[in-house]
Design goal:
single chain; 284 residues; alpha+beta; six-stranded antiparallel β-sheet; 16 strands; 37% strand
Length: 284
Amino acid sequence: MNILIVKNQANPEAADASYTLMAYLQSQGVACACVGSEELFGIKERSHLVDELPFEPDLAVILGGDGTIIRSASMLKGYDAPILGINFGHLGFLANDSKEGVIALVSRAMADELHSSRRTCLDVTAILDDESTMSFFAVNEVCISRGITGKTLQFSFDISDVPMANLKGDGLIVSTATGSTGYSLAAGGPLVAPNFDGMIVQPLAPHTLLSRAVLADPNDVVDVRLTRAEDQQAAMILIDGDLAPLPAPISSLQVQRAKETITFLYSRPDHFLRYSSKMFFSTC
């Protein structure tokens, strides 16, 4: 078995845990490699990181919080390597509790004793005003948002060629179920169980009393169009919180379910519900 370890470089406990884990794996004759979280920043930078590893990973162990886990998942696009997140970050919604023990959790993962949760991801196509296109892969969400001018955007969106709304606001978020606990939730979107295969379409601070989130079907395609030239110049695209490098102004955005999926490993089958009750419902 080949194991990739990603450590949150800013957390000394994560760094210490990575050294302990590597020593244990090497003692068991397991091939392993370790990268720091600082290498994951930037969409272009992390896209080639796996190609530089000495092997194709069979398992990825992420010692960090949700940000490190999401960036690692994006890096592993196209690889059928499950992800074992162990929380050494702030929120850690996607991770197992580090108190369970890093070596114990990894040993259980190697013995196929953990519960798997397969997650839907997104394929994103940005159509630029020069008619060129750029493609991105998102685990949590894609957000089209107002830029540094601070002015609201005027845009419309369709779902599978059906016009849904013309809006003014800060933008629009298209999220997976995994991303429903992130930016979409903060913008007023629903909390969605992780096995939901569709998309959450969430207007961002719309200037209306009537806008609501829409849960789209797994086979739907979401099209977002900026209807003013000045908005095309100012708008920006965020992929899982990272600014997408666009060489020209954007005119529209197309989002659909990706063919690739991501698998997370958990010590308990009810991880999502237990953590949701802990984090979001004060009465529990």
